[in-house]
Design brief:
two-stranded antiparallel ribbon; globular; mainly alpha; cell membrane; 4 strands; ABC transporter involved in vitamin B12 uptake, BtuC; transmembrane; ABC_transp_permease; sugar transport; transmembrane helix
């Protein structure tokens, strides 16, 4: 990397578009250049073209590691190690049946973790997501099973209940000024009490198994083409989005991702997607719950990465005072984020209820809250705000689900599982803290 303000080739991952012909000084390259024309705008070195081939990629990779920009690398390595260890201890772990079941079992926790990611991006925490998930599951079960309300009305009411909870907590946090930790801690108790009140004396309401929530969880597309079609569509969407982004950037005269980089990323994604599709087809096929989970991830990732609303969330998490001075409506962003978090908790709670076919007094309890927060953090979302993505929920949920699945196969007790999961969470926070410290030292945080 160059020591001055003008980055050199090989420092980043984007092509710098060529200067237009009409920008060349009259009289050729030897003609005197006006001071204003000679000034070169400072460009983020991460956005400059890799012109050194493989050497350039390795140099960029080393630069990112040395500056603390680890991205998803730690969690991907952890997932590979976990699968390798449990696969070597028991071949059942890597069987198509177990991996397919794992893809369904992580959906409930993963949905809630997506909402937690949004709150963590603000540098805040929501301790009520477990209770909210149980409350909304109880609302659906009691309305549909006990009172015979139309299943779609019950479903919408349950999800709306989650949004209302988020609105209430967001108002106390953003408008009244009560710390999010205190608001959501109080909510954890209050919403759990409301859930018990709704369930009544019976304490448990069993789902019929034919309701919409149960069908969303249990439906599996057994046609082989379904999983492969999803993989193909995902790869094509990824390729199209990257090509469109590169074309738009080039037309605007700003750094853009080179075709070779796009091709490499697309190939890697295609390999992963089709291997997953092949594995699912070796058992029963594509679970509808997994498809819905992926749709939520992609749509909300688009909201975070490609909309002004998402950029405002990152800005608020990175520097609240700077965001306020930039004209961002801080209160609205905070309230809306807590509404998204509670709404996703409601969605996750419905899938968890469908998984056990009931809503009971234990819904939303146990280690659910810890697992959801751990999934978001382990997946790469920073506890300090301003860094993370919805894909963190998928990666983190896979890590936690894999640990639990592997230890269940090995017959390890719940006590040991809790301790190991807690250790993994602590390790993720340590990595996050060290990464943040390294970035500060490198002037990138």
């Amino acid at each position: 990397m160059s020591s001055d303000n003008n980055p050199q080739p090989g420092d980043g991952e984007y092509h710098r578009p060529p200067l237009p012909e009409d920008s060349m000084p009259k009289g050729g390259v030897n003609a005197p250049v006006p001071v204003a024309a000679a000034a070169t705008p400072v460009v983020d070195p991460r956005l400059i073209v890799r012109e050194g081939g493989v050497k350039g990629y390795l140099g960029e990779f080393k630069r990112r590691l040395s500056s603390g920009e680890l991205g998803s690398l730690p969690v991907v390595l952890a997932l590979i190690i976990i699968w390798a260890v449990f696969g070597s201890l028991n071949s059942t772990f890597l069987s198509a049946q177990n991996l397919s079941n794992l893809s369904q079992q992580i959906v409930g926790t993963g949905m809630i973790a997506i909402g937690v990611v949004f709150v963590l991006l603000l540098g805040e925490i929501d301790l009520s997501v477990g209770s909210v998930s149980g409350l909304c599951a109880a609302i659906f079960a009691v309305m549909n099973v006990t009172h015979g309300v139309n299943q779609w009305v019950a479903l919408i009411s349950a999800i709306a209940g989650g949004a209302i909870v988020g609105l209430i907590q967001g108002l106390f946090f953003a408008k009244v000024g009560v710390p999010a930790f205190v608001v959501t801690l109080a909510g954890n108790l209050a919403w759990n009490g409301l859930m018990l009140q709704i369930l009544g004396s019976s304490g448990t309401v069993n789902l019929s198994g034919k309701d919409i929530v149960s069908r969303l969880y249990t439906t599996i597309y057994s046609q082989t083409i379904a999983a492969y079609l999803l993989a193909a569509v995902g790869v094509l969407l990824f390729l199209g989005a990257n090509l469109f982004d590169a074309r738009r950037r080039r037309a605007a005269g700003v750094p853009y991702r080179p075709p070779a980089d796009i091709a490499l990323r697309t190939i890697v994604l295609a390999v992963i997607a089709f291997v997953v599709a092949y594995t699912l087809n070796q058992y029963k096929g594509l679970p509808l719950a997994l498809l819905i989970f992926l749709i939520f991830i992609v749509v909300l990732d688009f909201v975070l990465r490609r909309t002004s609303y998402g950029r405002q969330i990152f800005a608020l998490g990175g520097n609240i005072e700077g965001a306020r001075r930039a004209g961002i409506n801080v209160s609205w962003i905070r309230i809306s984020v807590f509404m998204i978090c509670s709404t996703m908790a409601a969605v996750g709670g419905l899938f968890l209820a469908a998984q056990i076919q009931s809503a009971s007094q234990t819904s939303g309890g146990g280690n659910l809250l810890m697992n959801c927060i751990a999934a978001a953090v382990i997946g790469g979302t920073s506890l300090f705000g301003g860094r993370g993505s919805t894909w963190s929920a998928l990666l983190g949920a896979l890590v936690i689900g894999s640990i639990q699945s592997g230890m269940n196969i090995m017959g390890v007790s719940n006590a040991i599982q809790f301790m190991i999961t807690g250790a993994v969470l602590l390790a993720a926070v340590v990595v996050d803290s060290l990464s943040r410290r390294t970035q500060k030292a490198a002037g990138r945080a």
